[in-house]
Structures are given as C-alpha cells and as structure tokens.
Write a structure and sequence with these properties.
The structure is a homotetramer.
Chain A: E1 4-12, H1 17-27, E2 31-40, E3 45-53, H2 61-74, E4 78-83, E5 88-94, H3 99-109, E6 115-122, H4 128-133, E7 138-140, H5 148-161, E8 166-169, H6 178-182, E9 188-192, H7 204-211, E10 215-222, E11 232-239, H8 246-269, E12 273-276, E13 279-282
Helix pairs in contact in A: 3-8, 7-8
C-alpha cells in the first residue's frame, strides 16, 4: 500500500484513453494494482482512477508529474497525482453533538483512517473534553450573525496555520459563507441528517416525522455555496415506523450520520471521489 | 384465519381503553389472536387493532356491531369492524407498464392476496392481453385534458358497477381529479416511483439521476387531492452508483415499485392500516 | 419516562390474559404508555410487555409486586417488574479491539444509554487507556488454558463486587465456561462477527471470504453454554463484492458489530427482550 | 448496445495485461464502452470484462477470435467473446411454485431480459397453464428415485433439442445428478431460499424459524455437484421478527427469491459473471 501512486483523471471521452494511460504505466515497469474507469455517456466525460506499485517503477516520484504531463495535455485531462503514503491533514468542525466526533476520532486512533487531525474547531465549548481525550487542540470560535465574517476569517487563518488539506463538518450547525466554501472546492465534507434532497435545511427529523415517512436517511456531500445541494458522496437509510417519535428518529439517525460521514471520509482519503456537474463518481 | 374478526379503532387517548376493549372480547368468550395498540403522544390519539377468534364468541356476527356500539360511543371512537373471510373487491388502474400489474395478478392467482379483482381499467390498450391471460375484464377509457371529467365519470360508474371496495393505481400515469379522490378516502393506493417527499411529480428517476443520489426509492401511499402528498404506507430503497444510467435506475426502480405496492396492498387487505393526520399507523 | 414501570410477562396462552392485566392497571389508575403482546401459536406461549405511568397509580412501588402476585399466580406467569428510573449496572469485557468499546462508551457518555458502567475487564492491557479516558476502572485478568478456572473466578468476584446486573462481551475473544455462563442467564450479551448461524467459531470473515458470500453480517445474542448458539437479539448485514479482501470485510464488519451490539444493549436496557426456547421476543 | 462485443478474460496476473488488451482494441479502432478489471491478490488471478463498440472496429466479427488468439496465448488467458446482439437460449425448470416463473416471464415479455425462452420443464403439471399463457412449450417429466437417471436423460435430450445455452432452476425442488451438473459448468443458475451458507438443504425457512434469526435471505448460485455449495452470484435479505410465522417467512422469502434469481439471470445475460475457485466475480 505505501509505495504506490494513484492517478485521478477526467476529460472528454475519446478512443485510446485507457490504452494510452495503461501503456504509460506499463512501459515504465509499473504494476497496476487497481483500475477503475467510467464514461458518463450523456456528458461524454471519461473518468479513471488507477493505482500502481511504485517499487518497480522506473520514474522517480518527483519526476512522474513531468513525465505524465505530455500525455495529459494531449487528451486535455484534468488530473491529480497522489502518493499513497502521504498523510492528508484534516480539520474537524463541530457544534454540540459528539457522536460523529467520537466515531471519527476512534477510527483515527485505531488506524482505520490514515490521516492527521491537527485541530478541532467549534462554535461551542461543549466538546473540548473529547478533543482533549485524544490530545487534539480545540479552538472555540463563537459565530454569531454579527461576527460571522470576522470569525470565519479566524477559522480560515487557523486552517492555514495548521496546513489543513480538507475539512469535515461533523454536525457543525453553522452555514459557511460562500467566501469560505469557494476556497475549499471538493474539500469540505458535510453530513446532512436527511435523505437529500428530501428535508433540506433545519430540523430534518422533525420534517420527516411530520411527513410520516417510513424510512429516514443521512447524506454526506461536498459543500458548495448552495445549502445542502452539493455533490452527494454517500447516503444510507434506516426504517422507522409510527412508533418512532422525533427523539427515536434522532437516535436512529445518529447511527446513520456516523457511518455515512465516516464512509465519505474514507473514500476521500483513498482518493476515490471525482466531483463533476454537482455529482460524484465514487470508485469503491 | 377465516372465522375471525378485526376491530380497527382510533380515538382520543384515555385510561381504560385497552382494558375496556379486551374485556368486551373476553366476557363474550372471544380469544384474542393479535393485539396492537399505539398512542401518538403528541396528538394524544389512541390506535388499536385487535383480531379475535369468532368460533367461540358468544355474539353472532350480525350483532357484534350493535353490541360494541355503546362502548365505542362512551370513548367517542372511530372504528371499523371486519370479518376476515370477507373478500374485498379491488380495481386496478394501469397505463402502459406491466411490471406492477403482473406482480399483483400473480400474487392474486397464487392465493397470496385474498381479494377479488373484477376489473382492470386503463387509458391505453397495451395491457389488455395481460388482463386476458388472467380472465379479468379490461376497460380502455382514454383520458385527455378535454375529456377528463366525462371519462372519470365513466370510470366511477364502472367502479360502482363492479362494486369496488378499493382502487390500486399500478403505475397509472394520470392524475385523478379531486372529485374522484374524495369519493375514496383511504381507498386509493398509489405507487410513486421515488422516495417521497423527494422527487414529487413527473420523471422522478430523471430527477434522481440529475441530482446524483446514491439511493433511489419507491413509495406507496393513499391518494389525496394533493399530488404525491397523501399518507405514506410503505417505502423501500435500492443503491445506485455513478454507473447507473437513467435506464438502469428505471430497471432497478421497477423492482422496488412492485414490492412496495404489493406490500401496501397486503397491509390494506389485512386491515392493518389506519390513516390520520396525513400519516399512517401500519400494524405489521 | 422516569416515573413509570414495565411488566414483562410470559405464560401459557389463555383467554382473558390481556383483559386481566390491563384491568389490573386500569383499576389502580395507571395509564398505559406502551403495550405489546405476542402469542407464539406453535408453542402456545403468551408474551406481553406493558409500560404504565406511575404518577397517578394508586399502589406504592414497594407494594406492586405483592398486589400483582395473585393475578400472576392464577395464570402461572413468569414475570419481571422494572422501574424505569432504575439504572442497571453493566460490565464490559474486551480483548484488543476498540471499536465496540468506544461506541458503547460514547453512547453512555452522551446519555443515550441510561446505565452505570462501573468496570471494564480484559484479558489484555491494550484498551486500558480508553477506559481511563472515561474514568472507568479497568481490570486486566489474563486468561490462559491453565488459568481459566481461577481467572474466571476472579472475574466473577469482580462482577459481584461491582454489583453488576449484566455483562457485555464487546469483542471479548475468550469462550466463557459453562459455569460462568449459567450464572447469568439472559444477562450476557455477545456480538458475533457473522450472520449466524453461518460461520460459527473463529475467523468468520475469513470463512465468509473463502465461501464467496455477497453479504456479511453481525449477530448479537445472549450467551448460553453452546458456542454462538444462544438466542439471537439482533442482526444486520452489509454488501460485499469480489473487490473486498478479508481486511475490507473486517473493516466493514466493525461498523455492523458496533451498531448491532449497541442496539442489543439498548433493547436490554429498555426491558424489551424476552428469551425463550433459544429465541427472543424483542418488542421494539 | 447491439453492435458491440464483450471479452471476459481471466489469467495469472502480470504487468502489461490491461495495456495489451486495450491496445488491441484501440489499434483496431474500437471504442471501449465499459471496462472492469479485478485482481485477486491472494490467488494472483487477473479478471477483466471489456465491452467495445463494433461499429468502427476494423476487424470483422468472424475474424476477431483469430485476431485476439495470439495475445490470449501469450498471457495464457481463459477467455470468452460475446456479441451483445446474440440472444442466449434459456430453459426454466420448475416444480409447483409459480412466483419465480411469473417474475422471469414477465421480465422477458416486457423486454427487460434479452433472451429466448424455448421451453419450461417441470416434474409436476401445476404450472403448465402459466407457460401456456406465454406460449412457451411445457414438458412434464416426472422424476422419482427409481426413474431419475432415465428422466434426467430425457431432460438433457430436451435441452439439446431446444439448443439451450443455460438453465435456470426457478424453485425446481429436485437435486440434479452430478452427471447432469457437470455438463453445464457455470450454466445452471439455482435460487436457494436461504442466506447461504446458513440453512443448506430442505425447508430452510423452517430452520430459520427454529433458530430464531432476525433476518432471512435468498441466494442465487451456479450449481455444482455439491448441494447448495456452488459459486454464489447474488444474495439479498429481509428483516423478520418474532411475529413472523414460518408462513410469513415463506411469503417474505418469495419476494427475495424472485429478485435475487432475476438479478442473477440479468448478470448472466450481460456476461458479467466470472466463476473461479467456487466464487464469482460479478462486474456490475
């Protein structure tokens, strides 16, 4: 796993794409470990994720980008190159609820998530003891309507200081400004506590109870300036019945939120997600 | 199963309800086969379904209603009495797609559905051969914007002629008028091909594809004058990925539609559904 | 919720059971909050769970048992009376894996589990730091083939010292002796990492991988002297494909284990489980 | 869809496989529509499914096999070439239960299954009327212990006469002899009414009821000489509770059987399944 690289590619579909890319790896003595490709026929967009062993690869890590660039240009590719032993740096934003935070931190501590977590940021003091349990710095930045701009600037400064690669909103109950969001394209993962696009906005379990649905859900997505409308990464559902009160739905929903958010983080860490046209390709 | 009765009851919650109702059955030598109750604490409404053996019951079938009325009045109950060997008469309305119709007819023929199906009505001729395979009269009543009122009157006359108890819209692609709908309260079951309240209206799979959801669904509900907004009886979901085209979603969705509609019919036939406040209690 | 009581009852089915029990509550001015009953028709066994409000109940808590005894005797009931503000005391046994322990402790800390957790016991030192994070005493009792009897005696002494009501095996990788198990009938909850009865015993994910199943599962059950054969409380499943290695199955399985074990604990805490004939009735 | 070909390939994993295969298609002006590959790392086996557009392909259909052979030999591939407008010929074997038969025939008639169904064979007369409804010849071949060899010979003669490509056991309740089975490797699809490997053999729902499971399942698999032990193609599950009798499990299970069998047929028809080591790779 450690001495391998991943290419994530998208471009207009043309014949010869797979042949050319795999030939590049093969000719340089790379062994393909995983290859996934997809063509969105309607949009005529080609997507590919290929992971290969670097131990026998003839090109040095530092030279791969240069070596691949001519091929990438000839197909007009959008592409990312990742080395799989590189640990990303993830910030977690929370409010008062602890279930997602505990779930993420315990996965991180057990080694399931290969990630650095340099900071937890919150608009409330409540979860500081949890961050402390895991020896992670906790910054309380209270956000109100009047202070939002200033406080978001503080948050962004913190993210820069901690050299954060991507941000997880683990039931962070504030809406980020467009300014904030556009600085992290496909780099802010949110968990929404409903089966989107049903029940956008506040109190989705109350909305679900009111509507009398028989199934509730949770949705993880990349954050875009439109509320709860970004590209969906993962969803899951649970059955409810007439016996379930709003409180029961909230309790059952927490389990969905935990697992749906953690799966999205796992896909992101594995460089398995390509966002386009407000959707995602998730190679899993 | 055959020599038994079911009471479906709802009323304001008060102490003594279960005791009084079960005592009524017990004192008359009935043996309770199934009992379910539920209290909607927010609305303070009590719901109950009780099924008991009539073979030892001291009151004749024809006299049960009279015997129960005083108790029902004292608690101001809304109630229904059903004899479980009574076969309901169900009309099926279809358009062009056959999957739900086949599914219903094969369940009926194998004895899974204890129901009479005296008629299939459609606005298209396409499915007549299927009705014929099962020796069921098929009436083609073409509906256009201009002829809607007249044609619905024809439909309602047919339903009356065939002494229909309840109607199933098995992918019937027309919107019934308020006039029609209000004549069959909690007696028209529709299948909507989305996970309501997401994707109300036309072409829900296209909407789901566009939104990039990772799970699709189907919803059966009682029809009310508000489009796709009636009390939900049953829902189910299936996973989709970026690989699934709209056509794949339609194919996977058909399986959901079949099973979700058939489960709703089954609950209805078993007198397990109580609709209230635009929701349902489903005792299953 | 706090000032209420729950009766869990089982006995041979006879007419008049529900009427008599609900009449007992009604006559003493209790208001029924929840009532569930079930008859196992094959075995002719009646089961009931009834929860009622004590705030208006005419009988003092300490006298309810005496007051109910004559009725219980007349139907030859097996029964339990629980007061819902009583906090049970739960011991957790673990080995080296942390995911279930973290999940349980975070639910407990957030108030989702209304329980005391006075002690964590393990045959390994690995998880002591986690217990410490939550200020729970951790006892390391190493078990080997030779020391098993003596060490189990130590464990049982600890459970007695801590006045433990029930035990949770949160991926505790030792098989408890018959002697131990029979002291806690329906009071030891285990999580087995397969969809029982498939893949009993060691390394179930390896077995599942070898067999090429498309779905894996997890099962929580009460422990009986027969390995992995006790009454099943809850199960859940997750899809796998040919792409999933044993390690992937283990990772996906951990999420199942967490949620399936926690649901079993939740049902147990709510007095919703009746075990009989090596099965369970779970009123949920 | 029609003017396309699919290659299904397996061989020992080596570098250059994907590059060589895709280069073969690219150099001959084929446009890849779908490509899936998988490496079983433990067994070091490479699997690939590639589907490409023939409309621009420079090699005539009849010459593709010859053209591809050198490459196939150099990697020692096991491979199949399919033209996607070729309709396979499928025989259905049934006993007395109709649900799977109806489900298959209605999918076939609506065009969902691109297949010929020249014959239905049964050991009972019961389902002849259904085959007749769809104008499919029905052969009743009664099988008893004494006549099994002779009757299986009759069945095999029929399959040969009708030029059958593969066989579907749609709840056919007889065990096929090793002789029969070995003539159709990976060409007989069975539906077993349990979540294999749990509840092998007769009356799985009764076994499931007895064991008190909370989830039941169904499994489609290729038939091998070992009963219910062939490579699993697809599985699915449904929740049950203590309220579900064996009859309820059978009813719920029928829905699983229908959909799980039909999904297996669909994968088979799309040439998406590769069986090896008593497992399957299903490219879906």
């Amino acid at each position: 796993m450690t001495d391998s690289a991943t290419l994530l590619i998208s471009c207009s579909d043309r014949t010869g794409l797979v042949a050319s890319i795999t030939d590049f790896i093969f000719k340089n003595d790379g062994n393909i470990l995983h290859l996934d490709q997809h063509v969105d026929v309607e949009s005529n967009i080609f997507f590919m994720r290929v992971e290969w062993d670097l131990s026998t690869f003839k090109i040095w890590r530092k030279d791969i980008e240069t070596a691949f660039t001519p091929l990438a240009k000839s197909f007009n590719m959008t592409w990312q190159l990742h080395f799989n032993d590189n640990k990303l740096r993830m910030a977690i934003l929370v409010s008062k609820q602890s279930h997602c935070l505990y779930d993420i931190l315990s996965r991180w501590q057990s080694g399931e998530f290969n990630v650095e977590i340099p900071v937890v940021i919150s608009n409330h003091p409540d979860l500081e003891p949890i961050a402390k349990k895991f020896d992670i710095p906790y910054h309380m930045i209270k956000v109100t309507k009047d202070t939002k701009v200033a406080q978001e600037n503080l948050q962004m400064a913190l993210l820069a200081d901690y050299q954060i690669d991507f941000v997880v909103l683990a039931r962070y109950m504030q809406i980020l400004s467009e300014d904030f969001v556009t600085q992290f394209p496909s780099k802010i993962i949110n968990i929404h506590h409903s089966f989107l696009p049903a029940f956008i906005g506040a109190k989705p379990y109350h909305q679900a109870y009111e509507r009398g649905v028989k199934i509730i859900g949770a949705t993880s997505h990349y954050v875009t300036p439109n509320l709860d409308a970004g590209p969906i990464i993962e969803q899951d559902v649970a059955r409810v019945t007439h016996k379930d009160s709003v409180q029961d739905m909230i309790r059952k929903g927490k389990d969905l939120e935990k697992s749906v958010l953690s799966r999205a983080i796992w896909y992101h860490l594995q460089n398995r997600i390509l966002a386009y046209n407000n959707k995602t390709v998730v190679f899993n």
